[in-house]
Amino acid sequence: MSARTDPPPTGQRSGFDVDLRSALRGNGQTFGVLVALVALICFGLVRYENFGGAYNIASFLNYNAMFILIAIGMCLVIITGGIDLSVGSVAAFSSVCAAYLSPYGLQVALPGGVLAGVAFGAVNAFVILTLRVPPFIATLATLLGAKGGSLIISDAQTISVDWGSNFTKLGMEKAFGVVPWSILLVLLVAIGAWVVLERTSLGRTLLAIGGGEDASVLMGLKVGRAKAFAYLFSGGCAGLAGVFLASGFGAGQPLEGVGWELSAIASVVVGGTLLTGGLGSVTATVFGALLLGLVFNILNFENGRGTISLSAYWQEVIRGSFLFLVILLQMRVARRRLPPATGAPSP
Amino acid sequence: MNSASADANHDQGKRSSSRRPSGRLAWRSTLARHGTLIALAALLLVNVLFTPNFLHLQTLFVNISQVATIAIVAIGMTLVIATGGIDLSVGAVMALAGALAPLIFGSELGVAYPLLGLVAAFVLPLAVALACGAFNGVMISVLRVQPIIATLILFISGRGIAQVLTNGNLQTFSNPGFSYLGTGRVLGLPFQGWLALLIAVLAFWVVNRTIHGRHLLAVGGNERAAALSGVPVRRVKIGVYMVCAFLAGIAGLVVVAINSASDAARNGNLMELDAIAAAVVGGALLQGGRAPVFGALLGAVIIQLVKYTLLANGIEDEVALVAKALIIVAAVALQQGRRE
Amino acid sequence: MGASGAPLLSMRGIGKSFAGSMALDGASLSIGAGQVHGLIGQNGAGKSTLIKILTGVYVRDAGDVEFEGRALRIGSPREAQAAGISTIYQELTLVPLRSVTENVTLGYEPRTRFNTIDWRAAHARTRTILTGFGLDIDVRAPLGEHSTAIQQLVAIARAVSLQARLVIMDEPTSSLDEREVQVLFSVVKRLKAAGTSVLYVSHFLDELFAICDRVTVMRDGSTVADHPIARVSKLSLIADMLGRDIDEIESDGMTELGGGTNDAGELVFEATDLATGPRLSRLDLAVHAGEIVGLGGLLGSGRTEAARAVFGADALTGGSLRFTGQRTPPATPAQAIAAGIGFLTEDRKAEGIVPHMSVRENLTLALLPALTRGGLIRRTEERELVERFITALGIKTSGMDQPIRELSGGNQQKVLLARWLAIHPKLLILDEPTRGVDVGAKFEIQAIIREHVERGVGVLLISSEFEELVEGADHIVVMQDGVSVGRLSNPGITEERLVREIASVA
Question: Chain A partners of B152 at a C-beta cutoff of 8 Å?
Answer without folding.
Answer: 262, 265, 323
